[in-house]
């Protein structure tokens, strides 16, 4: 067990508990920049960590009945093969590019996805302040084809970068099929278990998962999530979300300029 990684996992877990965001968006750059983990290993390990933590959240959302299983099914039809495709693409690059070229490509991909995550966060905040303009259409049928395509795109991004199963997918889902906030989060978490688990298995097959590293993260993140959830009402969420944006911006700049 690496105590430093466990402390980092505790910080990330606390942020997730406080804001509901920041899993892959924070964990992967933390592993790369603070602990000098290779990008592909950071992605694969984060996917394993994410699948376990999302499973815990999924069980709770299912108990609360805040899951739209029809939407989960449509998203999964695209996101599960998309996750495998994205992971296989990274595995192919790892075995056909030299170390320097792979590092450059991974830096560019991650930097670009971080920018998408920033845009998704800003859109979600804007939408939450204009909720009256986006009323939920009760009884509307889910747009099956669009949800499958959305799942495919989001799943591919998740498989390649471990980012997007939360911030990016929820933002786009809000555009395609508005629903109550709790139900949207629950739906995303349940389908996120499938996506991250499939992607983690593919990355594990390519040797991109460090089990010891994942265990160290979980040891710190689980109590961090519990603490962060209890502190939600006591700390200013806007300040925390602004810090997340600044960190994502700094990470994307460093990766794109690498």
Keywords:
single chain; 258 residues; mainly alpha
Model description:
By secondary structure, the chain is mainly alpha-helical. It contains ten helices and no strands. It has helices spanning 3-19, 23-34, 39-64, 69-96, 99-129, 144-161, 167-176, 181-205, 211-231, 237-256.
Q: Which regions contain 5 or more consecutive residues with pLDDT less than 50?
A: none
Q: Distance between termini? A: 30 Å
General shape: globular
| DSSP strand tally | 0
**Helical proportion?**
over 70%
**Strand composition percent:** under 5%
- Write the H/E string, N to C: HHHHHHHHHH
| Protein structure class | mainly alpha
Mean pLDDT rating: 79
- Describe the largest sheet: none
Q: Number of helical segments?
A: 10
Radius of gyration: 17 Å
Write the topology of this structure.
Blueprint: H1 3-19, H2 23-34, H3 39-64, H4 69-96, H5 99-129, H6 144-161, H7 167-176, H8 181-205, H9 211-231, H10 237-256
Gist of the model:
This protein is mostly helical. The model has no long low-confidence stretch (mean pLDDT 79).
